[in-house]
Amino acid sequence: MRINKYLALKKISTRRGADELVKEKKVFINGKLALLGSKVNEADRVEVKGAEQKEYKYFAYNKPIGIETDSPREDLFPLGRLDKASHGLLILTNDGRITDQLLNPKYFHEKEYVVKTLNKLRSSFKKNMGKGVAIEGVKGKAPYMTKKCKVKILNDFSFRIILTEGKKHQIRRMCSALFQEVADLKRERIMNIKLGNLKPGALREIKGEELATFLKSISF
């Protein structure tokens, strides 16, 4: 495989970062200077010299209602989005290595939300929501059938939902297709990371066993 892919798989760098290391003549294969596009296999000895070891950080952030998805710190970026009208958990990090594992639709990671509606939930809502909903496409795209999900009715005007995918405005579009209007949407969990009692706008560092479980679940 190419050297940039190899270094990314070994969690040494992103592919783009690996290319920069090669350009800076910091990567050696079997004692010889690597070039862009050099091939490598498991039997080869790969060395990265003089590369700074970046300290990766991970935080849980409670995004308030009324602001766009962004990070309150310049050194961190959000993994995924919440629309302006929604609030709750975002994961912030400086670790670009995990972006693909979290956001690529080929991976399945649970995200849990509590949703309140303006109108009373229909008796068939749980069944229809849980089995998947045909939602309208966005920007000229064809309609899409959402994957099966877990739904728990909390009362006549609220429910809890666990998704394993993340289409744009998905829950709002699913509700709209079932003639329900969302009044409030709050994300409470991403995989094993929980919002808990984190106040709006506040950050909490993810570390220890919580971080180890999170990284293990995305094969890091």
TrEMBL record:
Pfam families: PseudoU_synth_2 (PF00849), S4 (PF01479). Its EC number is 5.4.99.-. SUPFAM superfamilies: Alpha-L RNA-binding motif, Pseudouridine synthase. Residues 1-65 form the RNA-binding S4 domain. One of its GO terms (biological process) is enzyme-directed rRNA pseudouridine synthesis. The keyword RNA-binding applies. InterPro entries: PsdUridine_s_RsuA/RluB/E/F_cat, PsdUridine_synth_cat_dom_sf, PsdUridine_synth_RsuA/RluA, PsdUridine_synth_RsuA/RluB/E/F, PsdUridine_synth_RsuA/RluB_CS, RsuA_PseudoU_synthase, S4_RNA-bd, S4_RNA-bd_sf. Coiled coil: none annotated. PROSITE patterns: PSI_RSU, S4. GO terms for molecular function: RNA binding; rRNA pseudouridine synthase activity. Keywords: Isomerase, RNA-binding. NCBIfam families: pseudouridine synthase. Belongs to the pseudouridine synthase RsuA family. This is Pseudouridine synthase. It comes from Candidatus Nomurabacteria bacterium RIFCSPLOWO2_02_FULL_40_67.
